[in-house]
Amino acid sequence: MAQGMAGKGTGTWGRVLHVNLTGGSHEYEPLGEEVYGKYLGGLGIGAKTLWDRMKPGIDPLGPENILGFTPGVLTDAGTLFTGRFMVVGKSPLSGGWGDSNCGGYFAPFLKRCGIDGLFLYGASERPVYLYLDDNKVEIREASDLWGLDALETEKRLKAVHGKTAQVACIGPAGENLCRFAGICNDGGRYAGRSGLGAVMGAKKLKAVVAAGKKRIGVADREEIRRLTREFKERLESGRGVQRFLGDRLFGFVGWMTRKGPVYTRQPADLFRQILKKYGTGGLTALSAESGDSPIRNWEGVGHKDFPLRLSQRIGAEALIKYETRKYGCFSCPIRCGGIMRVPDGPYPLDETHKPEYETVCGFGSLVLNDDMLLIYKLNDLCNRGGVDTISCAGVAAFAVECFEKGILTQADTGGLELRWGNGQPLLRLVEMIVNRQGIGDVLAEGVKIAARIIGRGAEKYAVQVGGVEPPMHDPKFDPGFAPVYYCDPTPGRHTTAAYTYLDLQLMENKFKRAVRVPSMATHKQRHTYSGAAESLAVNVMYKMVLDGAGACLFGASVGGPMPICEWLNAATGWGLPNDEYLVMGERIQQLRNGFNIREGIHAIRDCRPHGRIWGDPPLLHGPARNVTVDIDTMGREYYAAFGWDETDGRPCRQRLQELGMEDLIETFHPTVG
Does the domain at residues 278-461 carry the CATH identifier 1.10.569.10? Predict the structure, then answer.
């Protein structure tokens, strides 16, 4: 276990804040060194708190749910790519463990309030918002804000509390308990997944305003500066050569995948250059061609149903056409985001955030829409309304297919003619979902529940895993996504582990436990399904460390091994070997899975993905033709890598003993007598 006291000078404050919205009370809870030494901060503190304090079986939209906001150990510590925070709670969408990761500028200002986490209990009878600074914890009236969109809410609260105050808030979707509502900060950065915006809405909490000014201390400031300087120099070196090679490699791989998949280890430098110039949407056209992004509600094929002449219309250059300046989250040197303005045309927009890859694919290739101006507008509607664009696009694709199959009619849709390639009606459909109007009231439940309500065979077209709409990366292209979508405590999550991340993060240079996956140089080797689980498990543990530190997944993927463990040692003074941090990451993962098992959710039994996700039936054309991912083998081996029982999902006693997790042992292996 890590040694040293939590508190000032160690990257942490040694306390969290609990606020009861029912009674209006609050209290600070001190956290001892053993908590940080086992679970870091961020997601680890969130998972530990919910495990200790939340009763199983509660309604996710009831007052008993606990909603947490947790910055990481490295947040505001002077390190790069560490301006992120986690939101945790029981998910209204999956019914189990829920978490969501977010950037922007909210995290450091929350931490500057002198806390390592904020946890919200109960529910207010009327709309309120929470104000925090160095000295105050105040629950304030928000009736005048209720009904406003997320961007206008932030604007009004900053007018009251000053421009440096940071706001995390919900839009009308959260107020209306849309099960995939998100939480917005910085004008369009979203904690989108898991539907935790609906939890805020159920608590009648419109916003959290963080206006702290306390700066965290670290154990070795000079070492942090040295490590940060060296990592930044590495990111900036070789730029000209990598750009020259990258442009050609980018085109070569895109062409080759049309003839037959040829894979090489993905260079982090190329990924960095794409992010810097275009952002996450720089790979949209290539993803459609290669089979990475799903097409036509996961049933289509890119070069057949959405060929390059169409996908390029929503590709990299189209994405940045109206960009006016770059945007970066706190402590980010890459600045992959963008601020844009569309001055004219059918959908003029004032200053708004550039859409991300998931949004462009979701409202593009997933529904066969090649109108980028329309995607800009849909992105703005989702940001203002407060919905996760991944789930919202998945719901829209489901509705379109149900309409095409005659399951839904114009009488059901309020006159909307939902057709593949006809994107304009989606504007009204999104508004209906946000406001729970007409068919939108059904679709706001997510595709799994909506299909059950609609009936008439709609379940056949409800592409989901564990109740969650999947993201825009196809496991038939990168099979590493398959067991994670299927078996991770937050199903359908693309930012946890995959072969792609193993390629980019070079973890074998950092951890002794890291085992390389089978060679991915050929299509056949890439689709060898047995033997990769240990590497994917290590990848998951590493992601848990990133989420405990408050670090960005992309930051760990754009320049070789990020010095995350070295930064943590310099901040805390612990002096731990790298692999000890993987142990902390595994503890966080065990808590997340334990939460679900305690709730009665066993992934192998309850979260089997829709067949289209893994190739049942297989596609008949394209790079993934005839591919059926062996999710049963991958799922079993993934479970075994974490010591989870295949029959009931419980973690084994020996594994928990090795991890020092006595509280989970008592829950899942109680002493008899």
Answer: yes
